[in-house]
Amino acid sequence: MTDTEHTENDEDTTETRYDVVVLGAGPVGENVADRTRAAGLSTAVVESELVGGECSYWACMPSKALLRPAIARADARRVPGLRHLVEGPLNAADVLAHRDYEAADWKDDGQVAWLESVGAVFHRGHGKLAGPRRVVVDAPDGGRHVLTARHAVVVSTGSRAVLPDLPGLDEVRPWTSREATSARQVPGRLIVVGGGVVAVEMATAWRALGSEVTVLVRGKGLLPRMEPFAGELVAEALTEAGADVRTGTSVTSVTRENGTVVALTDTGDRLEADEILFATGRAPRTDDIGLDTVGLEPGTWLPVDDSLRVTGSDWLYAVGDANHRALLTHQGKYQARIAGAAIAARAAGVPLLESDPWGAHAATADHRAVPQVVFTDPEAASVGLCLAEAEQAGHRVRAVDVEFSSVAGAGLYADGYRGRARMVVDLDREILRGVTFVGPAVGELIHSATIAVAGEVPVDRLWHAVPSFPTISEIWLRLLEAYRG
């Protein structure tokens, strides 16, 4: 059945039956709705905040709007004949205004209109499970809507920033990723706690906008989930840009005194700033969605199979951050396409081809070819396994490293271009297990690497994929030459 069934229980409660109910209307939930509607299934989408989710308003879009001027200026300064034109500071007011535009001024009218244009029914309010296939939505106007699903309920509620357990932290009013991407003015001094993607991107953006930035990293270096040289090159660039990067340092206490943030560290330092950003991890937004009513632990990541169906269930799915496979918008949207196809197939009684790992119903790339770009200066981009991960997985591999200085196109792109590339080659199968690029504009190279890793393209065949001269992509030829020796 693809129609909806509607009943009135009382003046404040309605009950409607759909084929699919989606909890969460970020990019991932939107894509699930798009796919299930395209398959002819009636679909309801529930969202308590803004349609478009974290990515549109507090992550991908506003952060990249803040970073783009910083990267463009850095690139221009490396081009002869241009650098003298960009020596002054960025116009912070213009940058923040453009950030507001890219975040749609935190209004979701356009996103709601798009959702309704594909035929999905939007319910604004807090939705939570109330037993199998049943979702209760408490609307802002006090009304209550009961939604039941014939085929599937999909959890796409995303994740939230985690703050450390420090006494009095609430009174300090620290920044998380949300405040860091939506701040209305440039702080004179900013402490960034953390060494991951959010930390390095926001340190890059706010330093370029004029903040005095101190980065405190508990571990040995930045970007710990990438090849070590990625974090090293980004740390060097941040330091050259005027940021103070301190590794092996943890915050032991933080207070706000007369408007000033005072942070004490385990190395005995006392740091003062106007704001402090904690970029120290994420947690699933599953604590208040009624998981206990279906036998699951509230506040946990939801394990799923490759069709994105929650382990042990035949109707509950989890896509995007909620399943903890890859906390990346593009990967969540990929999962949404897989889940939508799987739900539609099961609703139609079509058997899923479990033996086909690259079929329409299997999120195989989650395991083998997850790409990511860190929009710092230099950019860091990777896909697949780093060397340590490949070795830990038991593969017999060899890492091949090449400096971008060997590529003519890199020197033309930027005077004094600095960067490095690595490919991790499986010596038994002669395919690539992973690729990492660090350098200006390498984010535009990563899709070629993703195709090579996801498609398991043999190294011998990559020799026949000829890079155009003189482009930065000639790094592929240098990597292959280094491998052959």
UniProtKB/TrEMBL annotation:
<keyword id="KW-0274">FAD</keyword>
<dbReference type="InterPro" id="IPR016156">
    <property type="entry name" value="FAD/NAD-linked_Rdtase_dimer_sf"/>
</dbReference>
<feature type="domain" description="Pyridine nucleotide-disulphide oxidoreductase dimerisation">
    <location>
        <begin position="370"/>
        <end position="476"/>
    </location>
</feature>
<dbReference type="Pfam" id="PF02852">
    <property type="entry name" value="Pyr_redox_dim"/>
</dbReference>
<keyword id="KW-0520">NAD</keyword>
<keyword id="KW-0560">Oxidoreductase</keyword>
<dbReference type="GO" id="GO:0016491">
    <property type="term" value="F:oxidoreductase activity"/>
</dbReference>
<dbReference type="InterPro" id="IPR023753">
    <property type="entry name" value="FAD/NAD-binding_dom"/>
</dbReference>
<dbReference type="InterPro" id="IPR001100">
    <property type="entry name" value="Pyr_nuc-diS_OxRdtase"/>
</dbReference>
<protein>
    <submittedName>
        <fullName>NAD(P)/FAD-dependent oxidoreductase</fullName>
        <ecNumber>1.-.-.-</ecNumber>
    </submittedName>
</protein>
<dbReference type="Pfam" id="PF07992">
    <property type="entry name" value="Pyr_redox_2"/>
</dbReference>
<dbReference type="InterPro" id="IPR036188">
    <property type="entry name" value="FAD/NAD-bd_sf"/>
</dbReference>
<dbReference type="InterPro" id="IPR050151">
    <property type="entry name" value="Class-I_Pyr_Nuc-Dis_Oxidored"/>
</dbReference>
<keyword id="KW-0285">Flavoprotein</keyword>
<feature type="domain" description="FAD/NAD(P)-binding">
    <location>
        <begin position="18"/>
        <end position="329"/>
    </location>
</feature>
<comment type="similarity">
    <text>Belongs to the class-I pyridine nucleotide-disulfide oxidoreductase family.</text>
</comment>
<dbReference type="InterPro" id="IPR004099">
    <property type="entry name" value="Pyr_nucl-diS_OxRdtase_dimer"/>
</dbReference>
